[in-house]
Design brief:
Elements lengths: L1 H12 L9 H9 L8 H7 L3 H10 L10 E3 H10 L10 H11 L6 E3 H15 L5 H12 L16 H7 L6 H4 L33 H8 L1
Antiparallel strand pairs: 1-2
Helix pairs in contact: 5-6, 6-7, 7-8
Pfam families: p25-alpha (PF05517)
Family: Belongs to the TPPP family.
Protein name: Tubulin polymerization-promoting protein
């Protein structure tokens, strides 16, 4: 009886055999890596706040190798200027540089977004002195949120007497003068090469082609 009960227990615990399948599919399934749910970069981009988005835009400005996670002191100053955090009265360029040096690490040259928020909190107290700490911070955030670096226009060339003298064709002498007509327009090949005059007139004669007019006026 004991032996029959032991055999029955073994048959009950026995797992059913697996159904035969394609071995190549099983191997390929084992080799495929498990894909993460969703796209982390896309989710992170959608989850960015307006303040962090502005931080990243300024952080990568002028630096193709920047990741947008850290900001240099130059871009920090530009952000404060472009977003009018610097008003020239309560907050100056010096104040911005001092806060940046205070927030960043001793051996670091950049600040993270968390340090950026700390720096804004420092400046908000100076920028909006007549408001509470929370209101002042909110006002500074409003100045920055949704903003992007301002790209300056093309620098105009500054006129100088030297450049004007070198480009004024009326002051040219010698062979250079022969290359331009009185209006300053180039004469092309005629100003560079002595062309042979085959008209039959003497060189330098100024009344070429007026013979018919003289004959008709004499009649």
């Amino acid at each position: 009886m004991a032996d029959s009960k032991a055999k029955a227990a073994k048959t009950a615990n026995r797992t059913p055999p697996k159904s035969p399948g394609d071995p190549s599919r099983e191997k390929s399934a084992e080799r495929l890596p498990q894909e993460p749910e969703g796209t982390p970069e896309g989710a992170a981009a959608q989850g960015l706040s307006a303040l962090e988005e502005a931080f990243r835009k300024f952080a990568v400005h002028g630096d193709t190798r920047a990741t947008g996670r850290e900001m240099h002191g130059k871009n920090w100053s530009k952000l404060c200027r472009d977003c009018q955090v610097i008003d020239g009265k309560n907050v100056t360029v010096t104040d911005v540089d001092i806060v940046f040096s205070k927030i960043k690490g001793k051996s670091c040259r950049t600040i993270t977004f968390e340090q950026f928020q700390e720096a804004l909190q420092e400046l908000s107290r100076k920028r909006f002195k007549d408001k509470s700490s929370e209101e002042a911070l909110q006002e500074v955030h409003r100045l920055i949120e949704g903003k992007a670096p301002i790209i300056a226009g093309v620098t105009k060339a500054v006129s100088s007497p030297t450049v004007s003298r070198l480009t004024d064709t009326s002051r040219f002498t010698g062979s250079h003068k022969e290359r331009f007509d009185p209006s300053g327009k180039g004469r092309g090949k005629a100003g560079r090469v002595d062309l042979l005059d085959e008209s039959g007139y003497v060189s330098g004669y100024k009344h070429a082609g007026t013979y018919n007019q003289k004959v008709q006026s004499g009649k």
